[in-house]
Amino acid sequence: MTAVADLRTGRFSLPADRVREIYTLMVRARKLEERMIKMSKSGEGYFWIGGPGEEAFNVCLGLQVKKGQGPDYDYLHLHYRNSATMLAMGMEPIDAMRQMAMRRTDPHSMGRNFVGHFARREWNVLPVSSVIEIQYTMAPGTALVQKRHGGDGISIVVGGDAGTAEGDFASCMIWSSRPGQRLPVLMIVMNNHWGISTAAETQHGEEHIIDRGKPFGIPGEVVDGCDPVASWHAIARAMEYCRRERGPFMLEALVSRLHGHSSSSGAVRVENEPDCVTILEQRMLEAGVCDRTYIAHVHETEEAGIEQALEQVLREPQPDPTDVPRFTYAPSPVDAVYPQDYDDLPGRRRSS
Amino acid sequence: MATLVQAVRMALHYGETHLGVTDIFGEDVGPPLGGVFTATQGLKTAWNSPLDERGIVGTAMGIAYAGGRPVAEIQFCDYGFNTIDLLKVAGNQRWASAGNYEMPLVLMTPSGSGIRGSLYHSHSFESWASRLAGWKIFMPSRPLDAYGLMLSAIVDPNPVLALLPKALLRVRGDELLPGEPEDPEQLKAMIDAPVGDRSAWQPQWPPLEEYFIPLGKARICREGADATVVSYGRTLPLCERAADELWEERGLRFEVIDLRTIFPYDWETIRTSLLKTGRILFVNEDTEVTNFGEHLLRRVVEEHFYDVLAAPRVLQGKHVPGIGLNQIYEQNTVPQLPQIRQAMLELAMEEP
Ligand SMILES: Cc1ncc(C[n+]2csc(CCOP(=O)(O)OP(=O)(O)O)c2C)c(N)n1
Ligand SMILES: [Mg+2]
Q1: What's the gap in Å between A191 CA and the centre of ligand 2?
Q2: Nearby residues of A148 by Cβ (< 8 Å), 6 or more positions away
Q3: 3-class DSSP state for residue A16?
Q4: N- or C-end of chain B: fewer Cβ atoms within 10 A?
Q5: Interchain CB contact of B155 with A (< 8 Å)
């Protein structure tokens, strides 16, 4: 290996150890998603949706989040393709698989929600919802509290390209750019050019989605989301702007969708879109960041880790029928009927 | 004696000075107007939002996620229909995330007919709202209840919807709120903004006191053993009047119950009264197909079929596309005093 082994894109670079860290997390995310696709076919899980093809950007995002609980830290309003972001933030793959396998131990939803629907209070990861784009209406709310609170915490909201047609995307721009009330919202659009089966160019006349921010004075940038070097720096710039200016910024990442929309469309591997993992491997070899042995080792280690986690998950308990109403209500001192939690209709209590 | 809308305003003032309310917002909620019904005049945390109901609900959720205590307003419930999916998520996010997050927000909105509001200022919302699991919903019929229930809504850590009966907003109660001055003119001079220029106006708040009415507790407004009538909101005072008339003219004693909380409803109070009278009528003005009253009727039929002495019934609004402006339309669409009186009489006189 050469002594100087930075990876470069144009005038930007990342040091070799950072590249290897990103690469390892990308492979971990890929192996996790591939295994979960298998689970959706084998009966170990049911519906699958996730982010193969977005790992480069999503890992770079997760590694740069200011992670913690409360308004001093970043709030994450994610969508359903952010597993790599969560892994980069430190989530164990097993916690994604617990949700995939619908186990009671699933920390995000106790086996209730689809895979990729994360929720983690101690990291400000707000519950992911299947309803496209609604997270964009909530980001100004967390950002408003952050701006008032002081500090440099920001609200990061992520969604797909097709979803930006919803009015909620416009709501986010308007609420984040009110005169004198600009809010630290980082609006991220993961542009894979697809909404299920509908190609972007058949529905969208705008050249770039970020162009829509201009009339609101929201600066933006389009980045190659398959390139970790470009992505890392674009995210760093965008975050820096939001943290310092306490205003909104828009980042559009051009990414691939390597297994189609979801298991509903078969989740078959597509061959005509760039794969950020193999592209990075090629570049690392060419730049001398690592050798083939290292690459093989990462693949083996990560795959083994996932297999081991799956074995563990499959031994864990299913939810119990008495879990059905649990966590409907938080305990309340002023509720005469449900001071603790919901259990059944008023006056008709479950006997167990 | 305060009007219902003054009671709401005083509750919000108490909330922002004693119970941690951080934001009171919505369309025209802040100065200079202080709400189209004056519910938010003079409040220090009140602010105007963009004309965007989805943004209002989403931002309230974001504020709540980040540790604030928002009270948001939808100007008329008629304009809340485009927020239904957000309301669903506000109600299900705690359940969906297995208790990761709470959602301590209050949404208030004027509801129902009675102000000559035509198609889009006369809708009822409680039947729709009753299907939003995870929410609590109340609808007061007098100022003291509005005050006590609003304070409970504020401290309850779950989403609470306050449906304010438009027709009763300017009606005075016959009991003082705790801390309210005796003379209504004095109260008006203290807390109602002057007509015209208000830029220099400051409210003078009376020394209000804490007063919680638990959610899920009905109020028995008239005691009686001949028949039971259950209502809330605009139709409640009409039921009281009909009961008084039927006592004076026919010697019939009706038990009149103000449900106050739509969910969780006070089944114990309904049930106890039904077992005493054997006759029950539910009155509300929402449309008659899949009406919330039908749900209560279902429970009466299923659980008390052999306890009733007359057919249990619901008096409700007609299943028509809207309420027409000409009073001929309104009076023949939603229950008025004569229809309520007639239905109560028939209930009491029915022979098995
Ligand atoms: C409000 C709403 N409408 C429709 C759907 C069904 N749906 C799920 S994903 C999807 C396409 C989303 O495309 P995009 O926003 O580009 O995100 P991507 O899946 O490509 O990452 C649709 C239509 C939904 N979940 N929510
Ligand atoms: Mg897409």
Answers
A1: 6
A2: none
A3: helix
A4: C
A5: yes
A81 lines ligand 1 (CB under 6 A): yes
Q: Which residue has the tokens 């729709």?
A: B128
Q: Count structural domains, chain A.
A: 1
Alpha-carbon gap, residue B49 to B47, rounded angstroms: 7
Q: How many CB pairs under 8 A join A and B?
A: 180
Residue A338: inside a domain: no
Does A335 sit within 8 Å of B216, measured CB to CB? Answer: yes
Would you say the CATH fold of B219-349 matches that of B4-191? yes
Distance of CA B308 to the CA centre of its chain: 29
Contact assessment for residue B53 and residue B44, using Cβ atoms and an 8 Å cutoff = no
Q: Output the average pLDDT for chain A.
A: 96
Q: How far is CA A214 from CA A168, A243, A248, in A?
A: 17, 20, 11
Which B residues 255-314 touch A at CB under 8 Å? Answer: 264-268, 271, 299
- Enter the CATH code of domain B4-191: 3.40.50.970
What is the whole-number distance in angstroms between the Cα of residue B91 and the centre of ligand 1? 21
Q: Which percentage of chain A shows pLDDT scores above 90? A: 97
Collapse the DSSP code of B321 into the 3-class scheme (helix H, G, I; strand E, B; otherwise coil) and give the result.
coil
- Domain covering B219-349 in this structure, CATH number: 3.40.50.920
Q: Which ligand is nearest to the CA of A260?
A: 1
Which of B97, B151, B266 is nearest residue A108 as measured by Cβ atoms? B97
Which residues of chain B are within 8 Å of residue A337 when distances are taken between CB atoms?
215-216, 264, 266
- Confidence at residue A4, expressed as pLDDT on a 0 to 100 scale: 56
- Tell me, yes or no, whether A337 lies in a domain: no
The Cα–Cα gap between B321 and A245 comes to 49
Check pocket membership of A248 for ligand 1, CB cut-off 6 A: no
Task: Note whether B111 and B124 are within 8 A (CB).
Answer: yes
Is A134 in contact with B63 (Cβ distance < 8 A)?
no
Containing structural domain, residue A27: 6-319
Closest chain A CA to residue B132: A328
Q: What is the ipTM of this complex?
A: 0.97
Cβ(A80)–Cβ(A49) under 8 Å?
A: yes
CB contact under 8 A, A117 and B96: yes
Task: Spell out, as residue ranges, where chain A has pLDDT lower than 70.
Answer: 1-4, 349-352
Where do we find the tokens 């997050």?
B101
Look at residue A349 in the predicted model and tell me its pLDDT: 65
Q: Give the CATH number of the domain where residue A249 resides.
A: 3.40.50.970
What are the domain boundaries of chain B?
4-191, 219-349
pLDDT-flagged residues of chain B (< 70): none
Domain presence at residue A326:
no
* Residue contact A140–B268, C-beta within 8 A: no
Q: How far is CA A39 from the centre of its chain?
A: 20
Q: Decide: pTM greater than 0.90.
A: yes
Q: Which chain A residues are within 8 Å of B271, Cβ to Cβ? A: 347
For B102, the token pair is: 């709470």
How far apart CA B126 and CA B138 sit, in angstroms, is: 9
Top mutation candidate among A47, A49, A82, A132 for ligand 1, by most atoms within 8 Å of CB: A132
Closest-CA residue of chain A to B83: A134
Helix (H, G, I), strand (E, B) or coil at A20: helix
Kindly determine whether residue A109 and residue B96, on different chains, have CB atoms separated by under 8 Å: yes
